[in-house]
Amino acid sequence: MTAQPPAAPRFEKRTAIVTGASRGIGLGIAERLVAEGARVVVTGRKQEALDEAVATLGGPDVALGVAGHADDTDHQAETVARAIETFGSLDLLVNNTGINPTYGPLMELDAGAARKIVEVNCIAALAWVQQAHRAWMAEHGGSVVNVASIGGLRPAPGIAMYGASKAMLIHLTEELAVELAPDIRVNAVAPAVVKTKFATALYEGREEQVAAAYPLKRLGVPEDIGSVVAFLLSEDAAWMTGQTLVVDGGVLLGGGA
Description:
- By secondary structure, this protein is α/β, with parallel strands linked by helices.
- Helix content is about 40%, strand content about 15%.
- It has helices at about 25-35, 45-55, 75-85, 110-140, 160-180, 205-210, 220-235, and strands at about 15-20, 40-45, 65, 90-95, 140-145, 185-190, 245.
- The protein has a 7-stranded parallel beta sheet, sandwiched between helices.
- The longest helix has 30 residues, at about 110-140.
- The radius of gyration is 17 Å and the shape is globular.
């Protein structure tokens, strides 16, 4: 059972950008924000997939899709500008885009792949905040949530560089929270395995076995992350900044079968 939106919309007349939101966790976050009254700009690499996401979200009155690469500064600037031009503000930012193009031990990791992981997962997140800050939030305030991972909180064999990049993102969240306070809050979420195409290799064909290690005995779904992100973006979390909320079904606690 996943959390339901509150009766009163928390994001009425507010605009959000959610990166990497044509599907999976990003789309789940965007759906929750729209359900609570927000207008949402979603990004991803393929316009066709974004068009489908916009239709899912309710059409052009509430959603806009802008295609591009998350670490492309021109794409970032265009997305921020179109959000403000289309919906009149940029109040909320969710850095959801993340990549993990490799699997295996660090001793076999290609240096170029390592650089790309850090570029997309960390440096691009900072750049999105810089763009939003310059264009809107410095004057009007706002709220930012970065999507990290429990891989940033404990060793993650096989995806170690991904985990290291998420650890960097968690620290970046804390640094930004200090620098941008009091008018801009910056928080993060750290999910465990969520049932998305991105994470398929971590559970496909053995979901029951993987879920057995979770005290809540199931893997996450995008709605589980969307509800927590919405909380952190909202005034319900008005006295929270620089925090990373673990959303993991209890797996970091141990106690599995």
